[in-house]
Specification:
Length: 150
């Protein structure tokens, strides 16, 4: 059962602003990247075409608190933790740590909430339960892990 996924990336020059710091909006792109990798690690995607009708996982909440800046060439680790699992939704806590240059430190913490949906015949989105085959692979991270470093 998965409650954690980690991924690393090096900050690209194009992701920084005139001060040489990663623009805040890029942290939301990073969160999406690690979330997509998490779903691929489960053998799926946030667009689930293996179901009829296909299912999706749009965001209903996204936030990020920043502690330290990230700069060009920094090596970042994104640690996705499943913070909450409901019948139709998941919430993730995403911790950003700078690995290089040292010392290793947490620089930001984000949160995403996604809802499982299908498109109705009228074209609107309707919340549905997470497919059991995927829900069975996901569990909530232990409380002591979620509360680390608060």
């Amino acid at each position: 059962m998965a409650w954690e996924f980690r991924s690393t990336r090096r900050v690209e020059f194009s992701e920084t602003d005139l001060a040489g710091i990663v623009h805040f909006a890029n942290f939301f792109r990073y969160m999406e990247t690690v979330e997509h990798a998490f779903w691929r690690s489960l053998g799926s995607s946030i667009i689930m075409t293996q179901f009829d009708p296909p299912l999706g996982m749009p965001r209903v909440h996204a936030s990020c608190d920043y502690r330290r800046p990230a700069r060009f060439e920094d090596l970042l680790e994104m640690r996705l933790l499943v913070a909450e699992k409901r019948a139709r939704s998941l919430s993730y806590q995403i911790r950003f740590s700078r690995l290089e240059p040292g010392p290793v430190e947490e620089i930001a913490r984000g949160r995403l909430t996604v809802v499982c949906v299908r498109r109705t015949v009228s074209g609107s989105l309707e919340a549905v339960g997470l497919p059991q085959i995927l829900a069975d692979q996901i569990e909530v991270a232990p409380a002591e892990v979620l509360n680390e470093g608060k």
